[in-house]
Write a structure and sequence with these properties.
about 220 residues, mainly alpha, globular, disordered N terminus
């Protein structure tokens, strides 16, 4: 690995963060101009969910979950020439950065903090204590796993990415399924339902890609 690789990855992550901010600010601007039409629940700003609601909790936690998926996708794009893996990584970067921007934008519109004071997953009826190895929520890669992905190249990087992202997607789909069934705003319910479909489809795709490489999920 050259000394330039970490710098390229950092610049790309910065660009992704900037894109998220632009999307979030654009949503907020739209909601200010057209509050009744743009309200996630289809009603007025008075119907914004509470700070401890499923809607707010899911938006906060999934924004963090998505950010790591984007990070891992940027990492693997620099470490493989395989077009299928690079295409999957590109799709994850674009889809999840956009969804993250939407969720941050809704939190802004609702006048709610973008980070929770308590532990994650409380909105699901239980809590998750972040571990010392860097995993903040179920399915998230540890610091050591991210370091291993950063150090890998070629097929080794592809297999590690596909395995880590499969675990990441499974946990993300579980979170989204819970939100789809319990959130009270149409925006969160619809987004969560779409996440379930999209991530389950990608889990199937990644299983096939691992099989093609003689590896198990």
């Amino acid at each position: 690995m050259t000394a330039l690789a970490p710098a390229r990855s950092t610049r790309r992550l910065a660009l992704a963060g900037a894109a998220v901010l632009v999307v979030a600010l654009g949503l907020v601007a739209l909601m200010v101009v057209r509050p009744s039409a743009a309200s996630p629940s289809g009603g007025s700003s008075l119907s914004a969910p509470a700070e401890d609601s499923v809607d707010a909790g899911f938006a906060r936690d999934m924004a963090i979950h998505h950010q790591q998926a984007v990070e891992m996708s940027f990492i693997v794009r620099d470490r493989t020439d395989d077009e299928d893996v690079r295409r999957l990584a590109y799709d994850i970067i674009n889809t999840q950065a956009n969804q993250r921007g939407m969720m941050l934008g809704w939190l802004e519109m609702w006048g709610l903090p973008k980070s929770a004071a308590g532990p994650p997953m409380k909105w699901m009826g239980h809590t998750f204590t972040p571990t010392d190895d860097g995993s903040l929520m179920p399915g998230m890669a540890t610091d050591a796993e991210l370091a291993a992905l950063t150090a890998a190249k070629g097929e080794k990087a592809e297999v590690l990415f596909l395995r880590l992202m499969t675990v990441h997607h499974r946990a993300g789909a579980d979170m989204a399924q819970a939100a789809a069934g319990a959130a009270r705003t149409d925006a969160i319910r619809n987004l969560a339902e779409g996440m379930v479909r999209g991530q389950q489809s990608e889990i199937g795709l990644m299983a096939d890609m691992l099989k093609d490489r003689g590896a198990k999920p």
